[in-house]
Amino acid sequence: MNETYYVTTPIYYVNDVPHIGHSYTTIAADTLSRFFRAAGRDVRFLTGTDEHGIKIVKAAAEKNTTPRELADEVVVGFRDLWADLNITNDDFIRTTEPRHEDRVQKLVQELVDRDEIYEGEYAGWYDEGQEEYVTESAARDNKYKSGINGQPLVKYQEKNWFFRLTKWAPKLIEYIEANPEFVKPVSRRNEVLSKLKLGVDDLCISRNKEKLPWGVEMPNDPTHVVYVWIDALSNYYTSLGLPEIGDEWDSRSEKYWPCDVHLIGKDILWFHAVYWPCVLMALDIPLPKTIFAHGWWTSEGKKMSKSLGNFVSREVIAELCEEYSRDAFRYYLLRAVNFGQDGDFCRDLFKQLYNSELANGVGNLLSRTTKMIGKYFDGSVPQAGTDVPEAAAVREAAATLRDTAAGFMADCAFNKYLQAIIDLVNATNLFIEQTEPFRLAKDESQRDRLATILYTCAEAVRIVLLYLQPIMPDKAAAGLAVLGVSAGAGFAEAGQWGQLPAGANIQTAQPLFPRKQ
Ligand code: MSP
After folding, report:
1. Does residue 112 belong to any structural domain of this protein?
2. What is the pTM of this model?
3. Count of structural domains within the chain
4. Is residue 443 part of a domain?
5. Is there an atom of ligand 1 within 6 Å of 297 CB?
6. How far is the CA of 106 from the centre of ligand 1 (A)?
7. What residue owns the CA closest to ligand 1's atom 12?
8. Domain assignment of residue 210, yes or no
9. Would you give the end-to-end CA distance of the chain in angstroms?
10. 203-260 confidence digits (pLDDT tens)
11. Domain that holds residue 404
């Protein structure tokens, strides 16, 4: 049985339309999924939508509709965008589905049975945007406004159910200290640790139904619903069909837990790195292996906003995909910024990167190689013979790519992974300049040398395209087809040098990445 690999994105709120931020995490998760599938792992990739809570109620009221209708409408936009971006998720969970709601109740009941939840009184400040209670001191420090959206905090006083977070926090600190892979990147891990060490309160995990009827009912108290974050975080586990509740989903995908990586944005780190693991510990469920928090995108130097006109919406993404291809968009997002750091979306830089690395880099290498094989060897890949010493650097760059690829992917270091590909492209272009095959072609006595040179180029391009597949599935497949190679081969074998058979028929190719003015 193959080793499993389970990757998740956050489940997106349906109070707003999808944008570049959502696409970013989903493209990253898709890239990991495609890479580990090709590396022979049994992959499960989950995304979905977060449909309960006050945000959705308010958004629906503003649009004169019901939360359910709003969710049904917005979810289509997410699904369509994922189809447009060639996302290969294995499941899509909506928190309003019975398979999820029933399991949330089951998990919460289990917490009640284990005495991990107790009834208490809450009096204090609430941030309705974040759906979070705020401590008196934090509220005061921020002039009783939300630290996130600046809206006034609301005073709440009510009976509620509390989870014993204080009991688990010290165990979590120990766990994070002993497991450097648990929260990444390391700066985020340090941030969580220092905040945890300042101390936590027990976590209020229910909301009064009178104030908020749109949620999963507490199994032990019909006057309350489950706090939306507990409801939402559980999706990573409930979607696998666990625990057994007597329906068709039971134990469906048990083998995928614990999850390999929860990809999230930095703003939702605390929920994932503190609340979620503490709840899991209280339930005696193994913790996810890694929580990776990426940075945020601004747009053209400013915070994205619809009123500023710099909002990278689905429509803008569609336009970019139309102009540059969806693969180029995927490439740009993962190449322009180190995963984990903030980045700025900038059309000029997009075009520059596209022209330099894709049009002049990968695309040009493919077309000059195929043109020369067409012209000098009738379109049939020549057999490598005579040793050409300069080819060693190309083979080395290919070996480096093969040897570092899995480590970079396991670390979500997409940019470094792509750099190793570009290094191979550059090494090959340099090799062509050094060996001048177009000059050798005029000299019949250099025929063997010319054959080795062009085989080396074609093999290098094949490997470039092979490793580009997880990020650029369409373009890589189109490029491989030009070389007479079918897409989808696993890295174990296809990553080795020399897999391109001599005699393969090269097709004439349209430029893979036409240059943009
Ligand atoms: N529903 C919660 C997540 C629950 S997961 C159990 C939520 N949803 S969200 O739709 O508001 O945000 C989803 C993700 O989008 C978050 O990871 C957030 O960081 C990300 N982004 C929102 N704007 C972003 C940018 N401008 N740039 C990058 N990512 C951003 O939070």
Report:
1. no
2. 0.95
3. 1
4. yes
5. yes
6. 27
7. 12
8. no
9. 50
10. 999 999 988 899 999 999 999 999 999 999 999 999 999 888 888 889 889 999 999 9
11. 347-494
